[in-house]
């Protein structure tokens, strides 16, 4: 199997052709992926009036903006400093402490019309935490007591129960940079946050990662071209590096996928894993032995116990020919399982807490310029048509269909699966509906679907 995977990758690298922009009918025949194991070497976000005594912000007043030393190989234009120094402000949440509902089960957060909403259990009613109307993304803190939110200009921190005023940090982004929907990841020690661009930042002035320290320094690293930060990605280290997804390991090391225009074609980009040193800022290759089957995809995931690092990504040869590589790398034993999911364009992958079951969110390989798919009409996504999700049993390699959707997320107890879609129930089946707005749903332990609320980005409290 490892030989087959490497051969397929060699063919992809050698024969990638432009992706057809035409309608095509893809036969959805799930393949049974058998793993191979190899041994490696080793509330509101707003601006309320401040009272005479302003509460202390969670993020202290900034002291410095850190950036790499400017050298001949590190031109100033690729190490962009903020147009303004970050400024700490204060905000307050919407729910008074006396009205905070008790937590009855796994707690779910999601975005609805630019605000964070909470659901205390799948059997309860959702309620609003913030009243901003402009939040683009958010993420739970590792201890589950706070939420970080990004609105294009500021990074704000909120208490889960809405009881304490918290802080916002102005990031100094210009008008163009503020339009990007950046995702958020916390470090396990809660001392760092990375805001990252989920779309390949091809423009030279795009910021791929914005790394912010939550200590008294408020140091900030604005990563545009990773080549300027020590990443060797192409011959002669020429400019043109592209930043993928960041992820903190359980020991607080920051790793992420990087690629380069040199490593991209119309069928996809080949990413490699690097570690970013937060103390002496710069990239170095992560020693995961990619020659033994690393998937070279953009996406990363970490198991609940912090042991399995997963990388995955889809590669396209044509409308009718594409594949997703998945790599599960055991950080303790330095062994890996590699899977090739044929005729699968996986846009999202969520593993159960025991890492035995995966939920795949899948898309088509092509789109038709003459007809917008249902998911675009209802506002679910702007990409290719969204197919039915699939439940993947890793041990047996079996797949079973679930309702169509994106952004699958397991509850920490492994009982519930939240996802985002536009579905209506017809004759006992939940089917895509272009007239239904983007909505949060959950699958209960029996596999039944429950509609929760209009919204996006479901995320369970850790």
What does this structure look like?
By secondary structure, the chain is mainly beta. 4% of the residues lie in helices and 39% in strands.
How is this structure best summarized?
By secondary structure, the protein is mainly β. Helices cover 4% and strands 39% of the residues. A hairpin with a 2-residue loop joins strand 21 and strand 22 (321-330).
In which range does the helix fraction lie? under 10%
Work out the number of β strands: 34
- Biggest sheet features: 5 strands, antiparallel
Unreliable stretches covering 5 or more consecutive residues: 1-85
Overall mean pLDDT stands at 81
Our measurement of the CA-to-CA distance between the termini, rounded to an integer number of angstroms, reads 36 Å
Tell me the β content. 35-45%
What is the approximate shape? globular
Give me the Rg, rounded. Answer: 22 Å
Strand order of the largest sheet: 1-23-22-21-20
Q: Structural class given helices, strands, pairing?
A: mainly beta
Number of helices: 2
């Amino acid at each position: 199997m490892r030989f087959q995977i490497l051969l397929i990758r060699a063919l992809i690298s050698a024969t990638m052709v432009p992706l057809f922009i035409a309608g095509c009918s893809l036969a959805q025949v799930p393949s049974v992926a058998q793993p191979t194991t190899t041994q490696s070497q080793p509330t509101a976000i707003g601006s309320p009036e401040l009272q005479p005594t302003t509460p202390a912000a969670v993020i202290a007043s900034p002291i410095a903006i850190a950036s790499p030393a400017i050298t001949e190989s590190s031109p100033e234009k690729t190490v962009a400093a903020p147009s303004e120094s970050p400024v700490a402000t204060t905000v307050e949440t919407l729910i008074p402490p006396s009205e905070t509902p008790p937590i009855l089960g796994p707690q779910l957060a999601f975005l609805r019309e630019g605000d964070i909403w909470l659901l205390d259990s799948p059997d309860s009613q959702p309620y609003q935490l913030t009243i901003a109307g402009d939040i683009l993304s958010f993420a739970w803190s590792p201890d589950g007591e706070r939420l970080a939110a990004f609105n294009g200009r500021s990074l704000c921190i909120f208490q889960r129960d809405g009881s304490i005023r918290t802080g916002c940090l102005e990031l100094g982004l210009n008008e163009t940079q503020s339009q990007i929907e950046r995702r958020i990841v916390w470090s396990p020690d809660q001392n760092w946050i990375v805001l990252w661009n989920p779309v390949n930042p091809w423009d030279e002035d795009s910021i791929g990662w914005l790394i912010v320290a939550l200590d008294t320094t408020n140091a900030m690293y604005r990563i545009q071209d990773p080549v300027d930060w020590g990443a060797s990605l192409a011959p002669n280290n020429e400019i043109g590096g592209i930043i993928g997804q960041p992820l903190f390991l359980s020991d607080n090391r920051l790793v992420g996928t990087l690629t380069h225009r040199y490593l991209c074609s119309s069928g996809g980009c080949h990413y490699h894993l690097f570690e970013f040193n937060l103390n002496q800022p710069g990239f170095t290759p992560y020693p995961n032995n990619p020659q033994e089957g690393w998937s070279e995809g953009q996406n990363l995931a970490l198991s609940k116990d912090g042991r399995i690092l997963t990388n995955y990504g889809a590669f396209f040869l044509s409308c009718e020919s594409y594949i997703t590589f998945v790599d599960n790398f055991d950080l303790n034993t330095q062994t890996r399982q590699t899977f090739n999911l044929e005729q699968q364009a996986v846009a999202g992958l969520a593993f159960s807490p025991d890492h035995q079951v995966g939920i795949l969110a899948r898309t088509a390989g092509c789109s038709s310029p003459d007809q917008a798919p249902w998911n675009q009409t209802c506002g679910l996504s702007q990409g290719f048509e969204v197919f039915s999700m699939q439940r993947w049993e890793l041990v047996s390699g079996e797949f079973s269909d679930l309702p169509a959707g994106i952004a699958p997320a397991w509850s920490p107890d492994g009982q519930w699966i939240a996802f985002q879609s536009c579905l209506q129930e017809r004759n006992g089946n939940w089917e895509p509906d272009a007239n239904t707005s983007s909505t949060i749903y959950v699958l209960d332990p029996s596999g039944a679907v429950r509609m929760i609320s209009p919204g996006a980005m479901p995320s369970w409290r850790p």
